[in-house]
Amino acid sequence: TMRTRHRVRNSGLVAIGVGVLLMLSAAPALAGTRAVIPVPCCFVSETVELGGSVYALAQQPPGSGPEQPTLVRIDPETNRVTASLGLPNGTSAGNQLDATPMVAALGSIWVVAYFENEVLRIDPESMTVIATIATGRSPDSIAFDGSSLWVPLFNDRSVVRINPRRNAVVH
Fold this sequence. Notes:
By secondary structure, the chain is mainly beta. The protein has strands spanning 5-7, 13-16, 20-24, 34-38, 43-50, 53-59, 70-75, 80-86, 102-105, 108-113, 118-123, 128-134, 143-144, 149-153, 158-163, 168-169. The strands form 4 sheets. It has a 4-stranded antiparallel beta sheet with strand order 1-2-3-4, with no helix packed on it. It has a 4-stranded antiparallel beta sheet with strand order 5-6-7-8, with no helix packed on it. A 4-stranded antiparallel beta sheet has the order 9-10-11-12, with no helix packed on it.
């Protein structure tokens, strides 16, 4: 059984195991609270918090099947998956698991679509893709600096900057 462990930035979550998200409360009033939440696919590669919910990107381990991730929204009050969204052709495989394939910024969830050469902007409320931004070859990570999104392109060996207010790459 493959085990993956990932501590989430700015929260008390730990993704562990195959097909589950182990949630540990960071709030002092809920110290010691635990929940094991089943998620689709096989492992959680990244989680972010936005608007009181937790979003997890779940996908197959590299080389074990189709690399089509699922974005799931989890209500930390009930510890239940409240919505999910299948994403196209997944994130990169191989040694790219240390990359950050999604980020929460400006009220949206942003996910790289490695094989589609795009970044997807997802509305967390409706769990729909509201913008698709062409980036160049093989976007494998994403970061937000407070005003722009930055996306390294693995095969282009470059980095692009996205203006999130225009949903476009800055040239």
